[in-house]
Design brief:
Structural class of chain B: mainly alpha
Helix content of chain B: over 70%
Number of helices of chain B: 9
Radius of gyration of chain B: 17 Å
Structural class of chain A: little secondary structure
Shape of chain B: globular
Largest sheet of chain B: 2 strands, antiparallel
Helix content of chain A: under 10%
Order of helices and strands of chain B: HHHHHHEHHHE
Distance between the termini of chain B: 40 Å
Number of strands of chain B: 2
Distance between the termini of chain A: 21 Å
Oligomer: heterodimer
Radius of gyration of chain A: 7 Å
Chain lengths: ~10, ~210
C-alpha cells in the first residue's frame, strides 16, 4: 500500500 | 491527466502570472501578504524535492521548477525591489502556528516515516492553510484591488478543481490520495467566504469590499 503511493500531481 | 487537473494547473499558473502582473503594473506589492508568499515558497520547495529522485514527465518537471522559481522571485520582489510598498503592520498573522501545526500533522500522518514523505505531508498540510495570512490581511484592510482578488480567486479555484480531479481519478482509476483530499477540502473551505464576495461583488463589476 505504502510503496504503491505515486505522486504524479503538482 | 484529466480536464479538471489540467484546468486547475493552468489556474495555478495564471494566479502567479496575475500576481506578477499586479506587482509590475502597479509597481507595488501593497495588499499582498509576504507571509503567505513565504509559506508558498516553503510548500513548493518541500514538496518538489522529488525533482531530484523521480522522473514523472516533462510537464510535471517544468511546472515544478516554475513554481519553485516564481515563488522565490516573488519573495525577492517583495523583500528587495518593492520593499517600500509592503506594509508589515497589516501582515500580522502568526505563521508559527501554521508551520508548527503542519509539522505535527506531518509527523503523524504520512505514507512512510522518512524525511521525503514527512516533508511531502508537511507541504500538503501547510498549503491548505497558507492563504490564511493573505485572507487575514484582506479582513484587516476590508477591501482589495480587483487584480489582487483575481489572484486569490485563481489560487483558490485551483484546489477546488483538484477536488473534482481526485473524484474523477477515484471513479476511473481507483486512485485515492487521502491526506491531499482532506487538506484540499480544508483549503477550499477557507476560501468559501472569499468566493462568495468575489462572485457577488467583483464579477458584477464592483470593488471588493467586506460587508
Amino acid at each position: 500500500e505504502k510503496k504503491e503511493h505515486k505522486k504524479d500531481e503538482l | 491527466m484529466n480536464i479538471f487537473r489540467l484546468v486547475a494547473d493552468l489556474m495555478h499558473l495564471a494566479s502567479i502570472f496575475i500576481l506578477l502582473l499586479k506587482i509590475q503594473k502597479t509597481r507595488s506589492c501593497a495588499g499582498i501578504s509576504f507571509k503567505t508568499q513565504l509559506l508558498y515558497a516553503i510548500v513548493f520547495v518541500t514538496r518538489y524535492l522529488d525533482l531530484f529522485t523521480t522522473w514523472i514527465s516533462l510537464y510535471n518537471t517544468i511546472m515544478k521548477i516554475f513554481f519553485i522559481a516564481s515563488s522565490i522571485y516573488i519573495l525577492y520582489l517583495m523583500k528587495y525591489k518593492f520593499r517600500a510598498t509592503y506594509d508589515p503592520i497589516l501582515d500580522t498573522f502568526r505563521i508559527e502556528f501554521l508551520l508548527g501545526g503542519s509539522v505535527i500533522l506531518a509527523l503523524i500522518f504520512n505514507y512512510d516515516f522518512i524525511p521525503m514523505e514527512i516533508l511531502w505531508s508537511f507541504s500538503i498540510f501547510l498549503e491548505s492553510v497558507a492563504i490564511l495570512p493573505q485572507l487575514f490581511m484582506l479582513s484587516r484592510t476590508g477591501e482589495a484591488e480587483t487584480i489582487t482578488t483575481h489572484y486569490i480567486f485563481a489560487l483558490g479555484g485551483y484546489r477546488a478543481l483538484y477536488l473534482c480531479n481526485w473524484l474523477w481519478r477515484y471513479i476511473f482509476d481507483g486512485h485515492v490520495e487521502v491526506y491531499a483530499w482532506i487538506a484540499g477540502v480544508i483549503q477550499t473551505a477557507l476560501y468559501s467566504d472569499f468566493f462568495y464576495i468575489y462572485y457577488t461583488k467583483v464579477l458584477h463589476g464592483k470593488k471588493f469590499e467586506l460587508p
